[in-house]
Amino acid sequence: MDSFEGAQKEERPRFFDKNAKKICWAKADTVPGRHPERWRKDAAGNVVCKRFCNCSGCLCFEYDHIVPFSKGGESTADNCQILQTRVNRYKSDKEVDPSILRGYSCDLKFNDKELDIIEMAVFGDVIRNGNQCRCRSVAEMLGRFSSKDTMAACKLPHGDDTS
């Protein structure tokens, strides 16, 4: 091949484009009772939050090549899955059965009330069946302001009950 042909050949993209990420998120399992644009389950069954992409906490995730890029996997929606960041780091450039991935997951689990508090802190409201509410301002809590927002203010945290 001459240098002209080599210059014409496109390199494989290493990263998933916006559309592939959108499809990848949509095909991941939903979290029952949670807003599907905010919460999903990764390929190992871990709950992850869409706002926590490319960080390292227990609710964080990365877009992963099912067939590793280094082994010829393409950066397409068909070869994309979401994985908790620490699981993706373990998987690295290996093809690993999802049942094995579960063993490398963060050992911290969150109940619904804790996820409500996290969602409130991250999004400013909670959207889930039967419990949609918004964050109140300090002025509103002190009785100095009355919100025109029709969504009810959340009553978080939920008191001493941790169940």
UniProtKB/TrEMBL annotation:
GO MF terms, alphabetically ordered: endonuclease activity; nucleic acid binding; zinc ion binding
Q: What is this protein called?
A: HNH domain-containing protein
Q: Which residues form the HNH domain?
A: 48-83
* Pfam families registered for this protein in UniProt: HNH
Q: Please give the InterPro entries that the UniProt record associates with this protein.
A: HNH (IPR002711), HNH_nuc (IPR003615)
Q: Which Gene3D superfamilies match?
A: 1.10.30.50
What lineage is on file? Eukaryota, Viridiplantae, Streptophyta, Embryophyta, Tracheophyta
